[in-house]
Amino acid sequence: MTATDALRFRRTTRAVHVVVLQGGALAWDADARALHRFNTAAAFVLDACTQWRTPAEIATLARAEATVEADVDDDEIARCLDELRTLGLVETKAAAS
Amino acid sequence: VTHASPTYTCLGYRFTVGSGSVAGARLARAYAACEVAEDDGEPAVTLQLHDDGAGACLTADDTEVARVADAAEAVDLFAWYVNRESVLHATPSALVLHAAVTVHDGRAVLLPGASGSGKSTLAAALVARGASYATDEAVAVDPTTGELLANPKPLGLDAGARRALAPFLPAASWDDVALVGADCVGASCAPGAPCRAVMVVQPEFDATVEGADVAPLTEFDVASALADQSFNFAHWGAAALDLVAGVARTCRGWRVRFGDLEAAVAAVEARLS
Q1: Residue A34 to residue A16: CA distance in whole angstroms
Q2: First and final C-alpha spacing in chain A
Q3: Cα-flanking dihedrals φ and ψ of residue B237, to 5°?
Q4: Which residue of B has its CA nearest to A33?
Q5: How far apart, in whole angstroms, are the C-alpha atoms of residue B131 and residue B170?
Q6: A45 φ, ψ to 5°?
Q7: Do the chains contact at B220 and A30, CB–CB below 8 Å?
Q8: d(C-alpha B231, C-alpha A35), whole Å
Q9: CA nearest to B52, candidates B40, B69, B39
Q10: What would the pLDDT profile of B100-142 be if each residue is shown by its tens digit?
Q11: pLDDT the model gives residue B1
């Protein structure tokens, strides 16, 4: 179990407009006035975080979602969550709370 | 103000070249394809270059707006200023991309690229081979329709580009300067004429490449390239993202790395046909 597994994740309230394209996704962060580039897995993870989710819950959703291009294993989800958290696009709380 | 030249428009920025300008006649020739009929629209600014012994200064309606220490760079200063003002003028109404556009039987090819990528040279070669010239350096995209708006400003072609273009334009007699009028390379679209992109070509001049290496671009690659080469993406924000994504979804995209201009032209034409 990693530190990420012990957390729940949810999108922050920042105004982010995500467009998923063949080959990747682009996101316009209106608050930061910045364009972010993701792979489609990260775009899926961000979309899944409309409510508080654990990495395990996101993984379950990803396995049921046939349109995700990337191979979304647990490591990839953890990497995506780290990336999104670094960009300020998701927030965290302890999974048990 | 005495207007010594016709009225020109670049992305809606209207100007005349003042009488007595340094290189005024040359500038008038270079911008000839941008000439528009006088109408009741926004008044034109009169731009004038002055060589005052301490370099060259550029005035807009008699107010100094820019200066260079070397008078030999006066024409470049003029072109830079017009481009900057054009982009600023267009920003409230259009997403402006750093790209060239050629039109082939009504189908536009969008060539985004940073300075030195070879987009101007490749565009000029495509026009010499029969395409129409829509723009170089700054192309306005209508945010409501996604159409590209022609802006047939002079092309920026350095000595290396002109050497590469010599086989395409054997009769051309260009001045020893970088600013080349559109009429030197072929036919032009009318200023402001709309056209729709069917292909995005990302040129990469690389002298070490023999011929041309062509690789397909994903939708993501195309949208990223257009976003990177936008002058005013942040102004439009989410609307700009939707716009470049729309272009990416409807156009075929190719990266063309080339050391040989003839091969690059053939590669683009083959994919259009």
Answers
A1: 10
A2: 18
A3: 55, -125
A4: B234
A5: 17
A6: -60, -45
A7: no
A8: 14
A9: B69
A10: 999 999 999 999 999 889 999 999 999 999 999 999 999 999 9
A11: 44
B-chain residues within 8 Å CB-CB of A37? 220, 224
pLDDT in tens, A23-78: 999 999 999 999 999 998 999 999 999 999 999 999 988 888 766 555 678 899 99
Q: Indicate the Cα dihedral angle B11, B166, B108, B7, nearest 10°.
A: 20
Query: How many residue pairs bridge chain A and chain B with CB atoms within 8 Å of each other?
Result: 46
* Closest to A68 (Cα-Cα) out of A80, A84, A50: A80
Using CB atoms, pick whichever of B218, B237, B242 lies closest to residue A23: B218
Convert the pLDDT of each residue in B14-23 to its tens digit: 999 986 666 7
* pLDDT tens for each residue of B145-185: 999 999 999 998 888 898 999 999 887 777 666 788 888 88
Any A CB within 8 A of B240 CB: yes
The token pair that represents A91 in the structure block: 């927030």
- Nearest-CB residue to B224 (from A22, A26, A28): A26
Q: How far apart are CA A28 and CA B239, in angstroms?
A: 9
Q: What's the Cα-to-Cα distance from A12 to each of A25, A44, A87, A90, B8, rounded to whole Å? A: 18, 15, 10, 5, 49
Q: How many CB atoms lie within 10 A of CB A21?
A: 20
Burial of B270 (0-12, 13-18, 19+ CB in 10 A): exposed
Single out the residue of B150, B128, B125, B129 nearest to residue B140, CA to CA: B150
Residues from chain B contacting residue A25 (CB–CB below 8 Å): 220
For residue B188, which of B146, B139, B130 has the smallest C-alpha distance? B130
Residue whose pair of structure tokens reads 């993501």 in the numeric block: B220
Supply B64's token pair. 């100094």
